[in-house]
Amino acid sequence: MHPTVVDTDVFPPLWHPVAMTADPSDVVAETARLRIRPWRLEEAPRLLDIHRRVAVVKWLDDGEPKLMKDLAEAQGRIEDYREWSASPPRGFWAIEVRETGRVAGSVLIVDVPNAENDEVQVGWHLHPDSWGQGYAAEAAAAVITYGLDHGLRQILALTHLDNHPSQALARRIGMERLGITEQWYETPSEVFRAAAGTWRPRDS
Ligand SMILES: CC(C)(COP(=O)(O)OP(=O)(O)OC[C@H]1O[C@@H](n2cnc3c(N)ncnc32)[C@H](O)[C@@H]1OP(=O)(O)O)[C@@H](O)C(=O)NCCC(=O)NCCS
């Protein structure tokens, strides 16, 4: 059992009241190499090819890896992503490599499970053919900037304790390590934070 070292007192309400509307065609951010925008239904085969892999899915959520089964499930997931993007600056987006138009994976800002103080988390999962190129870090820094610029007070990243690539990514982009908690998932998470006013993206 790991001690809960993250105190809810450090998580004040996260939202400034801002009026934003979500348009499914919205590009959320563009970086030197990437475009962050909604997943498209015709990209369901690519999403399936990411979520049918244990190497990706084993790090997401609690319990046994839940592998995606077929195209219908991938299409349904893309519809879900649109719904989850209806309350900006929350969202679940595709990371498009501008030079090729190919989707490297997903980056997201969503509520943590059972949030009590409006805590939100950033997440990332890429196809293995797109690892090792700095795309995840570039995309994560871009959506954190977007979220903080649009009213979020802070954004967390929650990683499995042995997910060293994710922890390295959080550190690489300048997120602050807060400690280990069992507050939001059944298994312990290592927690990182980007806070408005103090977070400055580091070069990935
Ligand atoms: C976590 C995950 C996104 C990390 O991907 P990643 O490609 O290692 O992360 P980054 O984008 O930060 O890339 C860093 C790597 O790219 C390399 N790189 C190459 N070109 C680069 C460039 N132009 N700029 C920056 N880094 C570059 C870096 O040297 C580094 O390589 P290293 O790991 O061998 O040192 C990926 O492993 C993944 O999708 N895992 C499965 C899902 C998952 O765990 N999600 C998180 C749940 S909390």
Can you tag this structure with a few keywords?
204 residues; alpha+beta; Aminopeptidase; three-stranded antiparallel sheet; 5 helices; disordered N terminus; binds coenzyme A
Helix count? 5
> For this structure, what is the CATH homologous superfamily?
Gcn5-related N-acetyltransferase (GNAT)
Radius of gyration computed on alpha carbons:
16 Å
Overall mean pLDDT stands at 88
Task: Please give a quick description of this structure.
The chain is α+β, with helices and mostly antiparallel strands and 204 residues long. Helices cover 25% and strands 25% of the residues.
Structure description:
With 204 residues, the protein is an alpha+beta fold. It has a single domain, classed as Aminopeptidase (3-Layer(aba) Sandwich), CATH 3.40.630.30. The chain is built from 5 helices and 8 strands. The site of coenzyme A has 22 residues, from strand 5, helix 4 and helix 5.
